[in-house]
């Protein structure tokens, strides 16, 4: 059975709302403190990217249960400019993360599964999943 | 070390006043400025080196590339204000035979 | 978080709280080494600490918990930065390995052997500033007692310069058996290089040949640093320059060709600007310094002279090379 809830991202406050939603869902899913923090940070990064580069978008959170495995999926979507050079954006040390470890590579490290779909001029959808160990 | 390039334009004559040292780090700045006018046909570019006390091979590379581009559209390049060291560099490399050079003192090499 | 390491941490923490002993701190750092090896992130360590503190001071648990949660949140980015850093180090190591392979290929490709010509003592030193050299030395030994050398400096350093050099090498290879007049050689190389180079690349080259029958050294230059001739009987240096444009800029170039006669004890030094443009804290190393060094070594074998010059100039530049350093010395015995 899947459970989906979402937050529209438009102002910087919406990022906080998305974080709150994420943390609650993570707690309810049974994730420990550290993983809750990781999931929340991932949501924060994704929501922030939407806010900074696309202007508006959506963060959806889905609780998963498949084959006895429990987890949580974040879907960050927008109709912004899209990512022209996906390879560079996923590289360590690229300017938006700039040695701070954040950005897309950071989100990838915080979660277990990570997928990006983006088209220039159309928008971007990022799907990231974390499983309960 | 920083490099500054001030550009002045008078019809078809572009004067580039270069200030600082031209080396591997600062050469890209000069390159960027020169490229903006490199393809303007039959124009003259004047490079003022009076505030440049050092240029290494990277700087020469930028100059050579610029020279080739300008020549390709029938333009010309003139160098002014070079000190002794820089003049020697242009002499050794034979570049003084293909571009007009005027020293700080106003002496010219007579190439046209 | 592996159980045993976690238990070790708790036990050590408890001990330290009770006795504040240096031994426990030392042991704690051995544990943190293990944490890093096992890639345990900073936030996990703090979580572990929180749990341990709550076990040791159960009455504080409720009050102190939130402060640790706060710290965990703050430390997540530190953990990400650390992972990025480690990943970049691994990438760099991989690139070094690739570079080492490239250097080996370059060395093989550009191998050249010093000619053995009666009456001529040749010394060579060539050190790259980075892993790949932009300086190039190519010797030709002709059967009739001619020793020829090309000393070239490809603009820039590193990988692009080295690729440029392959072109020169193949050009020189094709000239081996034919005419070796400096004027001709430079013209041929200029044609090859002009066609195939990037606009901003250029090459300076000095080409000289020594004829043992006439004891004449004939030379030409394409925008290169002039060579230095030391006349033993006059105890003075003469600049050997010949007019010629850098290679690769123009298709048709006239290269001046000159000749000097060498007597016993005379030597000619060919170099690249990595030698003359040496810099130390005070500024440029003056040419006088180099000439004096040569003078003091004038009676030594060619290889000793060049080795000494390199060692001294390297020291003067604070054990660093700003540019590729190349010296070739032809000494008339």
Automatic annotation (TrEMBL), chain A:
Q: Which InterPro entries match?
A: HATPase_C_sf, HATPase_dom
The segment(s) forming the Histidine kinase/HSP90-like ATPase domain are 34-133
Any matching Pfam family: HATPase_c
According to UniProt, the name of this protein is Anti-sigma regulatory factor
Its lineage reads:
Bacteria, Bacillati, Bacillota, Bacilli, Bacillales
From TrEMBL, chain B:
Q: What NCBIfam families does the record tag this protein with?
A: ant_ant_sig
Described by its record, this protein's role is as follows: Positive regulator of sigma-B activity. Non-phosphorylated RsbV binds to RsbW, preventing its association with sigma-B. When phosphorylated, releases RsbW, which is then free to complex with and inactivate sigma-B.
What is the protein name for this chain? Anti-sigma factor antagonist
> What is the scientific name of the source organism?
Sporosarcina aquimarina
- Please give the family membership noted in the entry: Belongs to the anti-sigma-factor antagonist family.
Among PANTHER family, the record links this protein to: ANTI-SIGMA FACTOR ANTAGONIST TM_1081-RELATED-RELATED (PTHR33495), ANTI-SIGMA-B FACTOR ANTAGONIST (PTHR33495:SF9)
Per the database record, which ranges form the STAS domain? 3-112
Keyword annotations: Phosphoprotein
Gene3D superfamilies membership: STAS domain
Coiled-coil ranges per UniProt? none
Q: Name one Pfam family in it.
A: STAS
Q: Does the keyword Phosphoprotein apply?
A: yes
From TrEMBL, chain C:
Provide the PPM-type phosphatase domain boundaries. 121-332
One Pfam family it belongs to: RsbU_N
Q: Which PANTHER family match?
A: PHOSPHOSERINE PHOSPHATASE RSBU (PTHR43156:SF15), STAGE II SPORULATION PROTEIN E-RELATED (PTHR43156)
* InterPro entries from the UniProt entry: Bact_Sigma-Reg, KaiA/RbsU_helical_domain_sf, PPM-type-like_dom_sf, PPM-type_phosphatase-like_dom, PSer_Pase_RsbU_N
Q: What is this protein called?
A: PP2C family protein-serine/threonine phosphatase
Q: Which organism is it from?
A: Sporosarcina aquimarina
PROSITE patterns cross-referenced by the UniProt entry: PPM_2 (PS51746)
Q: Which residues form the signal peptide?
A: none
**Which UniProt keywords are present, listed alphabetically?**
Hydrolase
